[in-house]
Write a structure and sequence with these properties.
With about 170 residues, this protein is mainly alpha-helical. The protein has one domain. It is about 80% helix and about 0% strand. The longest helix has about 130 residues. It is rod-shaped, with a radius of gyration of 60 Å.
Length: about 170
């Protein structure tokens, strides 16, 4: 993310170099002391003005830096808030989808369980029918064998009646 123009402040104030010092050379010794006092006073005022200007530039630099940091922090906080909101929305969507899929799976398992119960019921009915049919079949076989035995006995009686046994 672009952070804007870089601002630079020139703090290279040459405090020790006073361009006016020594450029005016006095011709007399009397005026020299007054001139020296004036130059010293002027130099002190000049240095004070430079110091004041330097402090003002530093203050502006710090205010500008504070604004930039504040702006970047707000921007970053907004980005983080948006990311957190997005993550929360994704999590909520996931939770809703997960719950829906879980419900669908649960309904499938319930349907499978119901079908298994029906199958068990049919299996028991089938087994009962087989046992009943087996018993009926056995009863019919016993009745059939009894009739066959009766028929054999009747046939023997007829044979004996037609061909009586000769006694020896």
């Amino acid at each position: 993310m672009p952070r804007g123009k870089e601002k630079t402040v020139d703090f290279d104030l040459q405090e020790d170099v006073l361009p006016f010092m020594g450029s005016q050379d006095s011709n007399g010794s009397n005026g020299s002391e007054d001139n020296d006092a004036f130059q010293i006073a002027f130099a002190q005022q000049y240095r004070a003005a430079l110091e004041k200007k330097k402090k003002e530039q530093q203050r502006k630099f710090f205010v500008s830096g504070k604004k930039l940091v504040s702006k970047e922090m707000e921007s970053t906080a907004g980005i983080i808030t948006d990311a957190a909101r997005s993550a929360e929305e994704l999590f909520q969507a996931f939770t809703i989808n997960y719950a829906a899929e879980d419900d669908r799976i649960r309904s499938l398992w319930s349907a499978i369980l119901e079908e298994e119960r029906k199958l068990q019921k049919l299996s028991k009915q089938f087994q009962s029918a087989i046992v009943k049919m087996g018993q009926e079949c056995e009863t019919e076989q016993i009745q059939g064998m009894a009739k066959a035995k009766e028929a054999v006995l009747e046939t023997q009686k007829v044979i004996e009646y037609v061909y009586p046994k000769k006694e020896l």
